[in-house]
Each structure stands twice: as C-alpha cells, then as structure tokens.
# Entry
Amino acid sequence: MRLAFILSEIGSGIRRNLSMVTSVILVTFISLTFVGAAGLFQLQIGQMKGYWYDRVQVTVYLCVDNSSETSCAAGPVTEDQRAAIEGKLESEQFAPYVDTVSYESQEEALGHFRDQFANSPIVDSVTADQLPESFRVSLVDAEKYEVIDEAFSSEPGVEAVSDQRDFLEAIFRYMNWASVVALVIAGIMTFCAILLIATTIRLSAFSRRRETGIMRLVGASKAVIQLPFVLEGVIAAVIGAVLASATLYGASRFVIDGWLVNTFPQTAFISSQQVLILVPALILLGAILAGLSSLLTLRRYVKV
Amino acid sequence: MIRFDSVTKTYDQKSRPALDGVSLDIDRGEFVFLVGASGSGKSTFIRLVLKEDRASRGAVYVAGQNVANIPSWRVPRLRRGIGVVFQDFRLLPNKTVFSNVAFAMQVIGRSRAVIRETVPDVLATVGLEGKNNRMPHELSGGEQQRVAIARAIVNRPGILLADEPTGNLDPTTSMGIMKVLDRINQNGTTVVMATHDDDIVNTMRKRVVELHHGSVVRDDAQGIYIGETGVVVE
# Structure
C-alpha cells in the first residue's frame, strides 16, 4: 500500500513538474555522455597501451622475403645472420643497455597481430610470411634507444630498428587531452545537473507543500514524505543515464565499428561491446548524483 | 495527557516571550478551551504540543513523555497520536472528500482494506454521509471543516487540537462543528480548542484556560468567556 502510494505520489510529482523533469533528463543525459566519452578515451588508451607499451621498446626486425628495404636486398635473413644478431644483443658490450631479448617468429607475430587487430577486417588478409620475425629488446634505460639503433641498423639481415614509443606517446598525449576536455565539459555539465536537480526538487516541494504539510501533521515518516521527491530526481537522472548510454553505444557502433576500423585498419580500437561496461557505471553515477543533490535540497526545503 | 511545566517560549530575544512560564495540566478525556487575543500564545501552545517548536525553558509532556526527549525519527509517532484542525481547513483541493481523509491513512501505511472500511465510518461520525465523492470546492465551509476533522481523527488520536476551527464559519455552522467536536470528546478523545468565539465558549460550559501575553491568567473548570480581563473579542 505504501509503495503504491509513493509511486502514485512520484507520478503526480512528475506530471506537475514535467518541464523541469525533462530538463533534468536532458542535462544529465548530456553530462553523462561526456563522462562516458572521457571513459571511452581512457578505455581506448588502455587498449593500445595494454598491448604496446610494455613490449615495443625497441624492435629489431629481420628481413623477410620480398622486403622493399634496401638493407634486405640480399634476401631473407639467414640462420647465421640471426645467430650473429642474437649473439651481439646478448654480448657483454650491450649488457649495460639491454635488459631482456626475446625472439618472435613469424607465426608468433601473426598471433599477436590477430590479438591486437581482433576488431579489424585486415586480420583475414594477413599471413605469417608477410610479417617479419624480430628481436624484441627491452632496454635498461628506454632513452638509450639510439645505441641499439646505431649498432644494429646496418647489421646484415636486419630490416629496420624501430622504437614506437615516441609515436605511441604522441597519440596517447592527444587522447589524454581529449579525455581531459571531455571530463571538464562533463564536470561543468554535472554541476549544472546538480543545480538543476536541486531547483527541480525545490519547485516540486513548493508545489506539494500542502500535501507534505498534512503528511507531517498526521505523522507520516520522513521516508514517506521525502522518498517521492528523491525518487523523482533519481528516475529523471537514470533516464538521462540510459539515454547517454544509448548515445555512446550508438556513436561507438557508428564511428568506431562503422568508420574508424575501416579507415585506420592499422590501429586497434575498442569494440562497441566494451562500451556496455560503462552503462552500469553511468546509471549508478546518475542515480547517486540525483539522490545526493535531492537529499541535500530536501534538508533545507522540506521540513519533516 | 498534556502537561506544561513552567514552559517559556521565546522566538526572538528582543521581543517578549510568546509563552511565559506556563504550567498547565490537561487530563485524558478533557475538553479545554484555550482563549485569549491574537498573539496571546494559543498557537505557540499548539506548536509546542506537536513538537513543531521546542520550548526555550521548561518541559512539555504529551501522554506522559517529555517531548524534548523524543528523537526526531520518533516525532511522526508522536504526531500520529495527535489530530489537528485549523481555521483554514487545509484540504487537498484536487482530492475528493474520501481521498482527503484516506490520505491521512495512506501516508502512515494503512492497508487499502482498512481504509475502505474506516473512512466511511469516520465521515458518518462528522455528519458527511454520502458526500464521499464530492470535491472540497463543492462543499460549504462547515462541510469542509468536517472533512478536516474527519481527517484529523481517522487514525484515532488520543488528542485533538483545534486552532480556531470556527474562525471562518458563521455562528450556526460553528455550533454544528462544536457538536461534532463534543461527540469526539464523548468518545474519549482529549480536545484542546483555541478560540476567541465567546458564544461558543459560553454555550459549551467546558474548562477555559485564558492566556494573556503568554501567561495563564485564568483557568476555570466550567468557565465562560470573559471580556473584561483585557481580552478583546475580535
């Protein structure tokens, strides 16, 4: 009975206050969309870092058949060349610089490639013999990349020495900026949402002051008096959060799955499935936001 | 049932207290008129009983309990034991007579079945049989006040506080309301009615407590309304 009563109170509150409730929905929708966008940028950074950051310090790529590099004019790397390169990497001379060396065969390279580009159509068109075998060298001091580069670039059988750290870091820096911008916008919008929820609850409390006054007099508990107001805000915020989630999911399907993956097949992107991880967080955030701001407002404007 | 022990209530340090050292004992089942001019402290008395305000000094006991010691989460329970009626009725304009009375039961979690059974009985007690589905604006002032009384007593409180319940009504209608209040009192409910309607006080011949500038200046067991003590009939 009490539940039915509270629900009907919420219904009448929302009806009376429809335009304010709509604006709460829209503001939480926009603010949580930006929160979610910031989250997606972080997920994307994590996705790329997760695979790249630890392993690709310096890679010494060995020649493959049909390599276009001039250093590989002599054809693919031979057993002896490979042994010589490995020996040199593990020699006393480079011990102060080299931490560990690992060898990646063409088959392993394909395996990694497939993991990394799981969401990309390019996977199907690549075979093992197209990918170079390589020595993955992690350095004691990553800044000393030049030493390895100079020493091995001209070694017979080496196609190229690459340090992808600089490139990756530039990308991560831009993405971090984007996520900071999204967070700042989210912060401002969230602040608006809190103020708007507080104002809505105030108006709602004002338009229902007769009811709450009578409730108090006949001894309704604090929960029965305040719950309709709190839930009114929470329901509006949760609707906003659901809209934000739907927008993010739609956008990720459209932008990532539909465009970025095809346009930049070399890059690993998050899947739209991963966006769904954000949904419960956004809904919870919306509910907590609305619940807290309405409780604080009620403390001031609805006497119990 | 209600006991005031040297109660002083000061709203604002600079002005004189609204109640000044009031001691008063109201027994279970009594009918008490609280008379006095506007500003004599009648409404403050009612607010203190309901724990809407706290006494600046002294203690207020309701049903044997010092209200100052009731924690805020227990205040609703205190108020469930007290019905209140006001001069301006305070009905919900968008609810029917039945719903207005039922509202008081819904908000404290009574079941639908109990509400359906109780509300018509209470409406009959106040003389509103057959008006269940009327809206407040379709009723006369006297009828609206009866609805308000029905709402105040539907949860069977031990105490009924009435703050100028006949203030907006003509004398004939007022007498009808007084009959209803008297009937409720006969059923064992303690009734405290603040008023400055001398006709009513003189006709009913109940206990009269007169307040003047926040102090009790008279407490007659079967009193009448006396104008000479400085009380101005408005």
The domain at 57-163 of chain A is CATH 3.30.70.3040 (Alpha-Beta Plaits). The longest helix of chain A spans residues 165-207. Chain A touches chain B at residues 1-2, 5, 210-211, 213-222, 224-225, 304 (CB under 8 Å). The first strand of chain A starts at residue 58 and ends at 62.
